[in-house]
Every structure is written in C-alpha cells, then in structure tokens.
Amino acid sequence: MFVYVSNRPSLDLLGTLKWRRDVPEEQLHVPGDLSTWSAGSSLGIEVTAGPAELDQVRQAREALYRVVSAVRAGQAPVAPDVALLNRLAAGPGPRLQLRADGTVSRTSSVEQLLGALVRDALDLLAGPDLARVKDCSNARCTRLYVDVSRASSRRWCGMAECGNVAKVAAFRARQRS
C-alpha cells in the first residue's frame, strides 16, 4: 500500500496524500495506517495512534508540505506552519531499546515520530540535498523526492506508480502512430 521512494522519511510522509492537484487521495485513513506506514518507513518506528493523533499527523504533514514547497520556491513559509514545525522539532525523539537478542526496537509516541520527521525535513532544508529535491514528472503526481542518481536524471517518484504508467502510455502512442 505505501511506497517509500523519496529517499527521505519526511518526504515519504508527504507522499501519503497523493494527487494533491486534482483529486487528493489520502492514504492515512485510520490510525492503524499510520502504524503501518511508520514501521515500513526508513525510520522503522513502532507507534500507536488514535483518531486525534492521526489528525495531528495530517496537519503536520500539510504544514510540512507547504513549508518545503515555499522554501523550494524561494518564498518565506507562513508563520503558523513555522511555529508548528519548530514546536515539533524541539520535542524528544523516538526511544531506542536494545533487545536481549541484539536487535533494536524503535518505539515512540506520535509526537516523537513527528519530531523525528520534522527534524529530518529541517535537516533537508538546511543541507545540500535541498537542491536535489525534485517533483515527479507525472503531471498528476505531487510526490517530492531527493534525486540521488549519479547524473541527477531521475524523472519519476517511482517506476511502479508513475514511471511505468508514463512509459506504457508513450509506447502505446508510438504504436498508434
């Protein structure tokens, strides 16, 4: 269900609302979706959320999307978004615990998860990778990703959802002509 193609967990969170420009498709429908997304992300954090906390995640996600978009466009983000993200970034991070078998568990509250995600985004905004953040070439897609390809030539957020669709459409167009 979830794809993690952005090369940054904060950008992967932004991708949980797809197709923002036309018919937005929410992927975080119920609190369990957040748990699934978080555990599968590169953070690998186990989190339990309720409906109010899921709403908090969605609000933070949208503030984060607006801030990243503004900064990329050379504009100042709006003050309420800045205040929310700064508050979340100042909080504690996830709890790491060494298990008896030598593996590590990562658990957190929703607030701690958001803190880790916002800190990742702020690190992105302050660092050299910001210049490598791209929009997917699919006109409908609103996912952002860090292009880590050697030639900086990546065009799609991911081949499964956008790249293959575009390539199949181009192939069919060539076949018709």
From TrEMBL:
UniProt lineage: Bacteria, Bacillati, Actinomycetota, Actinomycetes, Kineosporiales
InterPro entries: ABATE (IPR010852), ABATE_dom_sf (IPR023286), Znf_CGNR (IPR021005)
Domain Zinc finger CGNR: residue ranges: 132-175
Superkingdom of the organism of origin: Bacteria
Pfam families linked to this entry: ABATE (PF07336), zf-CGNR (PF11706)
Organism: Kineosporia corallincola
Full protein name: ABATE domain-containing protein
